[in-house]
Amino acid sequence: MTTAAKQVGGPKALLVGVGVLGYLAGRGLEAGATAVHKKRWRAFKNESESTSDDVFVVTADGDDGNGLTVLAGNEVRVLKDVGEAVLVEIIGGQNNPYMVSPTFLASVCGWKSKET
To answer: What is the rounded radius of gyration, in angstroms, for the C-alpha atoms of the chain?
Structure first.
């Protein structure tokens, strides 16, 4: 500590230097944390805006060929519509969520894609 103080011109200069470096490091961390927070917030906001809570009642039995079988009367919540696939949750189902084709979903309930 004494050697470092001598190299910078005394204990006052060392104290000022440490304070300035600490301040700059803190501001740098603050700027980085703010940037990360804003990026995550934007991603969360975009995700929540593209998520739907629309629930549809299945009107016809169907099997999509990929492990999803629905029966008339089941309720389907559309979580996300990405155009060529739709992420759905079968209310009360055990293996949620499922990715299904828009054609299949439209054939078993009154759902219509917002992408088209």
So the answer is: 28
Contact in structure between 112 and 98 (CB atoms under 8 Å): no
CA distances from 46 to 17, 49, 51, 91 (A): 43, 5, 9, 25
DSSP E strands in the chain: the ranges are 54-57, 62-63, 69-70, 75-81, 86-90, 98-100
pTM of the model: 0.52
In degrees and rounded to multiples of 5, residue 63 shows phi and psi of -135, 125
**Over the stretch 14-31, which tens digit does the pLDDT of each residue have?**
999 999 999 999 999 999
Contacts of 115 (CB under 8 A, 6+ apart): 81, 82, 83, 102
CA atoms of 4 and 6, how far apart (whole Å) = 5
